[in-house]
Amino acid sequence: MFIQNFRKGTAERLGIGYDDVRARRADILYASVSAYGYDGPRGADRGWEPVGQATTGMQLRMGGDAPAMQPFALCDYGTGMMGAFSVLLALFHRGRTGEGERVQAALSMTGTLHQTSFMFEYEGRTWDEPSGRAARGAGPLQRLYRAADGWFVLGARPGDRPRLAAATGIAGLAAMDGGALEQALETRFATEPTATWVDRLTAAGIGAHALVDLETVLEDPWVRRHRLTVVREHEGVGAVRMVGPSPRLSMTPVRVTEPARPPGADGPTVLVELGLGDVLGELLSARAIAVP
Question: Going from the N-terminus, what domains does the chain have, and what CATH number goes with each?
Answer without folding.
Answer: 2-118 (3.40.50.10540), 136-211 (no CATH), 213-260 (no CATH), 262-292 (no CATH)
